[in-house]
Design brief:
Blueprint lengths: L1 H47 L2 E7 L7 E17 L5 E6 L6 E2 L4 E6 L1 H37 L6 H32 L3 E3 L4 E6 L6 E2 L11 E16 L11 E5 L8 E12 L5 E9 L10 E8 L8 E4 L3 E2 L6 E5 L5 E5 L1 E5 L3 E6 L6 E3 L12 E8 L7
Parallel strand pairs: 1-21
Antiparallel strand pairs: 1-20, 2-9, 2-13, 3-5, 3-8, 4-7, 5-6, 7-9, 9-12, 10-11, 10-13, 11-12, 14-19, 15-16, 16-17, 18-19
Length: about 400
């Protein structure tokens, strides 16, 4: 009897433990299932509501585009001055910073070697003249004798006399050329300014050995610059090259004159883009008759481009453009608050903003910012509708 009772209690405990295990496994799963269902239902209800977005009304650009490029100032004429004859410097008459006029004497050179060459060339010329005199007399006598008695002298001998005289005349011409050449080199004893300007470099001193030419073996004597007009060379990016026109005005600023703007004008451009940098080399001339600016100064050149009529260009924030696989898109909003994704073409990139050159019309309303939740054909609800500020500041 006791044994049966123990067996019943044992079976009861086993059954109770099984129920507890079942409840421990089933109740958490049942709870999480209902929580997930509740969340899914809430998310479905939430997605059924129109998405709240900010929108932006865009208008065609009507402000000037500014392009600022770094550069430096260079003189309109700047050249090194080299010697044209060999010798030793006897004196220099100008130094750095001196203003000179075209034809002013800059330095004098002693040319003993050239002087000796002149003496020798003149001697060779005198000898050639003496030989010509003898050859001329010989030719005249031979011709007269041949005319009186052809048997007294052969025709061959007479031709040789004539040729000797012609040779002597050629020798005189060659000797005279050598004399003129060395006298011409003697003329470079004095060094003159090639144009009005300022001496910006002096590389010689009294007693310096002067070598003619402009190679590494020769020494530059002076450098002169004409700075009443200065040049600034800038590399204009490809996006702007078609706007560059000769005569276009540019603003020149120098850090040392923060409150002053100098005026320059485009003088010329290279007419071809650099194939590596995709830039157009452009020269801007600046009037510097007052001498306020100096060659070598760092400067910034600002161009202002007027908007091109009928281009339909727009400047929009970068976050309003959707970049996914394929072309760039914007989210257009129609009167029914429905989104339509439209392909656009990007122009210039200003960093925080970009230029749209195709795909938009004046007065279009777009989503800004356009997040990944924006889908084609979805309904939205505007939070704030803003009018784009027309002040560039890009």
């Amino acid at each position: 009897m006791k044994k049966n009772k123990k067996e019943k209690n044992k079976r009861f405990l086993i059954f109770g433990a099984a129920i507890l295990i079942f409840l421990a496994l089933f109740l958490p799963a049942y709870f999480f299932y209902h929580v997930r269902e509740a969340r899914s239902s809430a998310f479905a209800k939430e997605t059924e509501k129109p998405l709240l977005v900010h929108t932006l009304v865009v208008h065609q650009e009507n402000q000037e585009t500014e392009l600022v490029l770094p550069s430096f100032l260079d003189a309109i004429n700047i050249t090194p001055i080299w010697a044209r004859t060999n010798g030793y410097l006897t004196d220099w008459l100008v130094d750095i910073g001196d203003k000179v006029k075209q034809g002013d004497l800059l330095a004098t050179i002693d040319t003993p070697d050239v002087d000796q060459e002149v003496v020798q060339a003149e001697g060779d010329l005198a000898a050639a003249i003496a030989r010509e005199s003898i050859a001329r007399v010989t030719e005249e006598r031979g011709t007269e004798l041949f005319q009186l008695n052809p048997d007294a002298i052969s025709r061959e001998e007479l031709d040789q006399m004539i040729a000797a005289h012609d040779q002597s005349l050629a020798d005189i011409q060659a000797a005279n050329g050598r004399v003129n050449r060395f006298r011409y080199l003697q003329g470079f004893k004095n060094l003159y300014a090639p144009f009005d300007g300022t001496i910006i470099e002096r590389d010689i001193d009294i007693g310096s050995l002067i070598t003619a030419g402009s190679t590494l073996a020769a020494q530059q004597m002076f450098q002169i610059a004409k700075s009443d007009i200065l040049r600034a060379f800038v590399n204009v990016p490809q996006n702007y090259f078609h706007m560059i026109q000769d005569g276009m005005e540019a603003e020149i600023t120098v850090p040392q004159f923060p409150k002053k703007i100098f005026t320059g004008r485009i003088n010329r451009n290279a007419g071809a883009l650099d194939p590596l940098a995709r830039t157009l080399l452009t020269q801007v001339n600046i009037d510097n008759k007052k001498g306020e600016l100096l060659p070598g100064l760092y400067t910034e050149v600002k161009f202002k481009f007027k908007p091109e009529k009928g281009t339909g260009n727009f400047i929009v924030p970068i976050e309003a453009v959707i970049f996914r696989t394929g072309p760039a898109l914007v989210a257009l909003v129609d009167k029914d608050n429905t989104v339509h994704l439209k392909e656009v073409k990007i122009g210039r990139d200003y960093g925080a903003k970009v230029e749209i050159v195709e795909g938009l019309s004046d007065g279009d309303e777009i989503v800004n910012p356009a997040t990944d939740r924006i889908k084609n054909g979805m309904e939205i609800k505007r939070v704030i509708q803003t009018q784009r500020n027309r002040t560039r500041g890009v």
